[in-house]
TrEMBL record:
Source taxon at top rank: Eukaryota
UniProt-annotated stretches for the region Disordered: 93-112
Organism taxonomic ancestry: Eukaryota, Metazoa, Chordata, Craniata, Vertebrata
Family assignment from sequence similarity: Belongs to the FHIP family.
Name of the protein: FHF complex subunit HOOK-interacting protein C-terminal domain-containing protein
UniProt cross-references to InterPro entries, sorted A to Z: FHIP (IPR019384), FHIP_C (IPR045669), FHIP_KELAA_motif (IPR045668)
Domain FHF complex subunit HOOK-interacting protein C-terminal: 473-565
Length: 604
């Protein structure tokens, strides 16, 4: 009998040309039918899903019918403007951090209110868990139709008078809690491909599950995340912000934060890998803003993330550096501001007595020697005639007097002749990196195009006595420079990820980043570091450590061949050091290529 009633109302609502849901004799029976849908063990799921989808379609055609379908309380909640919701999210997030409360401790009256008010939303969410693909698809489509209502007060109703955000974010938390963090492969999770939510319905039933239950759980989690991301992109701003805030509170704050603080390294490793994949895959601006808020606008978590970049576990360090690199590729201005630019704004890394002085020498420290007098550094392998044509991006001028050719050669000359192995295999010089450097610089330019970055450097900020407070480069640069200083004793994979982050920061066209990372001629204040000064110290340590290696050129050549996948036997001795030397050589060539792309060659 119930099935026949469902079929009758489905045909009635789908065939009638004029709206009917506002009629008492229609919407009251419809509300009762909705409450009877999605009961566990129901044998009429297919008809129920079709009935609910038709209701959502009618509401989509006439959004004013939404209030007749949803059983809203007599006194609706106060409307919260979209512009105020991010601030409200921040306040709630702080409150939840100070007084954490599990879902089992919440007020039971809340759940009863949800059931009485949002039977349609609950039914759709319940049917989205169905084992039947067509039923599940119709439930997804119904949720998309409701959340995509653009006209009238529909978005305000859904965001302020229903529990839609809590229900959708709660489902994400439910799927996340099924992930076996102790047994998942972090590398597989971190590189998880984009899994469109609709892909689970486009495959045959035999392809919906894999041999590994853990893989199925990961697939289900990322499919639902993609669905939420897609829903927030299509939803009105006020609803999108509300949903993103719910994801922040219910998933990030209540689940992910505690796992990042976990004592088990495997849990921390997999959790950070999930965050890497989520940051890489997210497209919704509202959800990205909440991810940035969670990771970077909380001092405790930001400090924790950057501490993990220098963790005792190399794997945690690698995945944390990968998370930083993923953040640097997202279109969000606050990421660079919080991580690096706010610390460089004062330009106190410059010596007060050297500002404006036209000098070609670089003062890296009190005991630093001029590169021209250092016997370990020879002239560049590349003359002006060997440089590639002028690149298309707009130039960024150095604050110092050095030409682009001088700057390029400064990075190339950093690597002592004794340890250069690329030429032994007849590999290209820095020009082999120019194409990739141009691609990366172009991407960074497109990201920052709307951020209104200054074209010139701000004046240095010093006290009246000229003795300003000691310069602090920021937690990120401190970790990166500390790691770079240990590049000769770190695993190869960690060094690759470290140099990838530094290269991406160097590719941005902000004048402060360009000066601090790519200008070897700046005069540093006491105790200050720059990328070039750290590299010089590393090269000095390198020249001392290679004295203990016999047949250095042959060993470097064998190591380079091994890293290229060629089947050459390499002895176990000094492998970390030899690989670090090769990474250093390639990193200096990459920095030279980035400089070549960003600067005009005709500047002399």
């Amino acid at each position: 009998m119930f099935q026949q009633v469902l079929l009758f109302f489905s045909k009635l609502l789908s065939q009638m040309q004029k709206p009917l849901l506002h009629l008492v004799n229609i919407h009251r029976p419809v509300q009762k039918l909705i409450r009877l849908c999605a009961v566990p063990g129901s044998k009429t799921e297919k008809d129920e899903a079709q009935f609910l989808l038709i209701i959502c379609s009618r509401v989509k055609q006439d959004p004013l019918m939404l209030s007749y379908v949803l059983e809203l309380p007599n006194e609706p909640a106060a409307k919260i403007p979209a512009s105020d919701q991010p601030q409200l999210c921040t306040q709630e997030s702080i409150h939840r951090t100070e007084t954490p409360q599990s879902s089992s401790q919440s007020d039971p009256s809340v759940s009863s209110t949800v059931k009485s008010e949002n039977s349609l939303l609950l039914a759709l969410l319940q049917l989205s868990k169905s084992q039947s693909g067509p039923v599940c698809l119709k439930a997804y489509e119904g949720l998309l139709l409701l959340s995509g209502l653009q006209s009238g007060p529909s978005a305000d109703i859904l965001s302020n008078q229903t529990q839609l955000g809590d229900l959708l974010a709660g489902r994400l938390l439910e799927l996340y809690s099924l992930l076996p963090l102790e047994s998942l492969d972090p590398g597989q999770v971190q590189s998880w491909p984009h899994t469109p939510w609709s892909s689970q319905f486009s495959r045959c039933s035999s392809d919906l599950s894999s041999d590994s239950p853990a893989s199925d759980h990961v697939t289900n989690f990322f499919c639902w995340f993609d669905f939420l991301d897609h829903l927030m992109k299509e939803a009105p701003q006020v609803l999108s912000v509300k949903l993103a805030c719910c994801v922040h509170h219910l998933w990030l704050s209540d689940a992910v934060q505690s796992q990042l603080l976990h004592t088990c390294e495997q849990v921390v490793l997999v959790t950070t890998s999930v965050l890497c994949a989520v940051v890489r895959l997210v497209q919704s601006s509202s959800l990205l803003d909440q991810l940035v808020h969670f990771l970077l606008r909380r001092q405790t978590l930001t400090h924790l993330l950057l501490e993990h970049c220098d963790h005792i576990s190399d794997q945690i360090s690698i995945v944390s550096l990968s998370l930083v690199e993923e953040l640097l590729q997202k279109p969000h201005r606050e990421i660079l501001n919080i991580l690096v630019l706010d610390f460089l704004q004062s330009r106190r890394y410059l010596s007060p007595h050297a500002v404006g002085v036209d000098d070609r020498r670089t003062e890296t420290s009190e005991d630093s020697d001029d590169l021209e007098d250092d016997p370990f550094f020879s002239d560049s392998l590349f003359s002006d005639s060997q440089l590639l044509p002028h690149p298309p991006p707009p130039p960024l001028l150095l604050s110092g007097p050095g030409s682009s050719t001088d700057v390029i050669n400064s990075f190339l000359c950093l690597v002592p002749v004794q340890v250069r192995s690329a030429q032994l295999m007849k590999e290209g010089g820095y020009e082999s990196y120019v194409h990739d450097a141009h691609t990366m610089v172009t991407k960074c330019q497109s990201l920052s195009q709307s951020w209104d970055w200054p074209l010139s450097l701000p004046p240095p900020s010093y006290s009246s006595s000229g003795e300003g407070e000691e310069f602090f480069e920021g937690h990120l640069f401190k970790v990166l420079f500390d790691r770079l200083g240990r590049i000769l004793e770190q695993p190869y994979e960690l060094n690759l990820q470290l140099t990838a982050v530094l290269s991406r920061l160097s590719a941005f066209n902000h004048p402060l980043l360009h000066e601090y990372l790519l200008n070897p001629y700046i005069h540093l204040s006491p105790c200050s570091k720059s990328l070039f000064s750290v590299l010089i110290r590393v090269m000095g340590e390198l020249m001392q450590r290679i004295q203990q290696i016999s047949n250095l050129s042959d060993r470097l050549l064998d190591t380079r061949r091994h890293l290229l996948g060629l089947s050459y036997n390499t002895g176990p001795e000094h492998q970390t050091l030899l690989r670090g030397v090769i990474v250093l050589e390639e990193f200096c060539k990459e920095l030279a290529a980035i400089t070549f792309v960003k600067m005009p060659l005709e500047q002399n």
